[in-house]
Specification:
Number of domains: 1
Shape: globular
Helix content: 25-40%
Distance between the termini: 38 Å
Structural class: alpha/beta
Strand order of the largest sheet: 3-2-1-4-5
CATH topology: Rossmann fold
Strand content: 15-25%
Length: 146
């Protein structure tokens, strides 16, 4: 893999990298990660390098296309699904993903509190992540610049 060939962000968020290794997620086997607002797959690429099945949901068509390109042509990874969809709709309409790791970085401050509550409720009710133990969650809040 050549970093210069990656379209979009070149590396995962540093807070995510710290969290990943601090929680020893690199030691887990046969796991699945679901990321909302997955951009070009930069965060998912970390998980892909450790054999996770990667599922990404991205609203932007450009970022979704870049993620498809990065996973198919640069990473040459096979265990992934990338959806060009609104995460709020995805959480409402998809079922039984049962991801071991659930990521929502850098996007929560762009939705309302009520939308966020519904997103979490729908994600839990539709079994998008493992509930009742064995699951890891990563939320990253960045303040808006005024």
């Amino acid at each position: 893999m050549f970093i210069k060939e990656i379209k979009g962000f070149k590396y995962p968020d540093m807070e995510l990298v710290r969290w990943f290794f601090k929680n020893k997620l690199n030691d887990l086997k046969d796991c699945k990660v679901l990321e909302f607002a997955s951009h070009n797959g930069n965060n998912l690429s970390l998980f892909a390098n450790y054999g996770y099945e990667c599922i990404g949901v991205e609203l932007s068509e450009l970022h979704h296309k870049n993620a498809q390109y990065n996973f198919n042509h640069v990473l040459k990874y096979k265990k992934f699904q990338l959806f060009n969809d609104n995460m709020l709709n995805f959480a409402k309409n998809f079922k039984n993903i049962c991801a071991n790791v659930f990521l929502i970085p850098n996007v929560i401050n762009f939705i309302t509190r009520e939308e966020f509550k519904n997103l979490l409720k729908n994600s839990r009710n539709n079994h998008l992540y493992k509930y009742g133990g064995g699951g890891f969650f990563f939320f990253l809040f960045k303040s808006k610049k005024h």
